[in-house]
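**Protein fold record**
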Amino acid sequence: MKNIPRLLCIIFIYVIAYGNTARSQSVPSPSAIKGRLITSEALKASDVIIQLLHAQGGKLVKIEYPNAKGEFMFDNIPAGRYMIITQSMAFAKYESAPFEHSNGTDLGAIALSPASTTLKEASVTAVKPFVQQQYDKTVLNVAGSISAAGSTALEVLEKAPGITIDQNDNIAMRGRQGVLFMIDGKLVPMTGQDLANLLRGMAANQIERIELITNPSAKYDASGNSGIIDIRLKKGRNNGTNGNASLSLSQGVYPKLNPSLSINHKTGKLNLFGSYNYLFRQDMNDLTIYRDFYNAQDEVTGGNNYDNYFRYSFNNHNVRMGADYNLNSRVTLGLVASGIFTRGNIVSSSEAESFNGQQQRTGYFTTLGDNSPKRNNSSINFNYKHTLDTSGAELTADLDYARFKGNEFQHYTTSYYDVDHAPNRPPYKLFGDLSGNLSIKSFKADYTQLIRPIGVKMEAGIKGSWVESDNDVQFFDRSNGSDVLDVSKSNRFIYKENINAAYLNGSRKWQKLSLQLGLRLENTNAKGNQVTTKENFDRNYTQLFPSGYVGYAFSDKHDLGLSLSRRINRPSYRQLNPFKVFLDPLTSSAGNPFLNPEITHSFELTYTLLQRYTAKAGYSRTKDNILQVLSPDTEPNTVLQTGRNLAKFDYYSLNLGIPVTAGKWLSSSNNLLVYYGEYKGNLVNTDLSVSRVTFNLNSSNTITLNPNTSLELTGSYQSKAYYGFLDIEDYWSLTAGAQRQLWNKKASIKLSISDIFFTNWTDAVTRLTGYGEHFIQYRDSRVATLTFSYKFGKAQGAAPRRRTGGAEDEKRRAG
């Protein structure tokens, strides 16, 4: 296995060499469409984008760029009727008359006129729906949403079709967990509660759109068995200085404050960008739990009734800055640095009544908690991009380094009382010092080449990542006034991991048929060391991950496509860490160092009508499905929450996207997701075989009263669903908002109220051998928000380049 990195480099160099040879030997085919742009000497034609469209319907066929002489060519174009248009900040738009193409069409010289420097800012009144269904993904247009203003990224996702968030902040897409999260194509470093806290600290005002991708190609990391959620941030798009400033004030049960600023400055060859977002947020979690314990005869032996209340206060600082520098028209260097700094305080109060097998009270205890989590997460990315020719040949490379530091001090005091409310034993005081460090180093390179003789676009790449995690958790008993180390709760866990990967992806488009095939190879080497117990593990495995897509356009009105993929979801570093986290004297959570990664095979059939209405039917099977399970611990009447592998999970789905418009005043996006999930296996001495048909309805409606005033109404409903042993009741919510544009649409003021009827709460039951639980959970979901935002700088134009790094998957699992 030590020779794997060397082998991957040899494969990558061979692919590049072959691609360059193919390019040097390529000649125009007889079916090419070519021409030449004529411009003034002061302006370069190479800055122009040329689009080839079907004359009927205007459907895009291909995009090309001219060379330095203004010459361009669309190769391997089937016979038909076409037209071309140009796009450029420097030149006025050119649109050709429709022309017939059969063999070797030469459009001759095309003269472009310089763009006017006195253009008046355009007023765009078209409204993008909040939800757009596309054949390969679902897009949430957050920037245009009224109800999203002042919200966090997590709250926006809660409104998205097919997205659910459980009581432990685990995010599932279309009923499946194991989602890969990205920000601007760069995978984020967290899962579970850490990921949720990051999304709570990200203002929706910073987000342009969110893309939900169900079947990614081989170019993406093989991780994320249920797909990818990519959050695309707003960007400056024009020469000079421009940006956006906003301020949101919110009030639910507790107040929230969210100012943010993003700015972009572009001059000559240099582009500078940066953003800062501050979030002060107070939240609550009201959790009631009813527990029962059973003997071998399934008789109740005892139980507890919990009344828990958590109050959260978080100060989040999110900073991002970077620069792109164009060495010339083909080579760009980039640098991106980012930091997420969180300071929190979690005050909790828990009262638990205890019962015997006859449901008689035996006493109760109260636990008061005061925790202060701190997270300092920083990363830096160096990137390189080289456009080799006008056919689309491109070489990119990324070098990443990231470091994550976490500290958390926990203080718990538990007092015990008898049935008459008199203390019956001394208070138990526990102090925890949870500290950990994680470092990630990564390198990746990607190469794209069009092989003209056969009309195939080839993509190839390599990647290597090195991760080291060190968590030292210590708990001390302070009941007697001094610190006594509790060895049963303390542990140090060191984890090292190296993943090497290579992929090859090919695609071709005919007149009606589209085909894409890819293969990714990943070699994983992992070592874990539990310093306290002296237990170790060493894993080495190499796997292949194929993916593909075939599509057929029967006409301009009907498209059909089939995609498939094999993917992996590795446990996060926290899920592997075996240390126990104290929740109360009878409840704790812990990682499982023996968790296996889960493997998923997915298929999805997509039908599109009129390039507007979509229907998606899918099937997937996951082996070694990772579930978070509550089960009896070693001590009587105690419970442990930990990750476990279930034998398999079968998933069937049908997704319908139905947009509706009525004149210029109503835009409605409606989505229906129906899925059937079947869990099978044996965990903690319990046979699990449950299944249910579940459906999710989502409707987002925008009403335009006039060019400056609009209303928005968003509703969602989730029917009953299973998640492993957990049986979750249905829930629904309704959100409304209004927006007024000011000052020639440079500013806006928005008012929204989320979860108006306070119906977005969780009611669930779990049952397995020896244990049963029923819980009801309320959060601070009904919130009124007032937001003011202001755009400054020039009008928007072509977006500047933004780069992604190579440490994506490893960072996601750092939580």
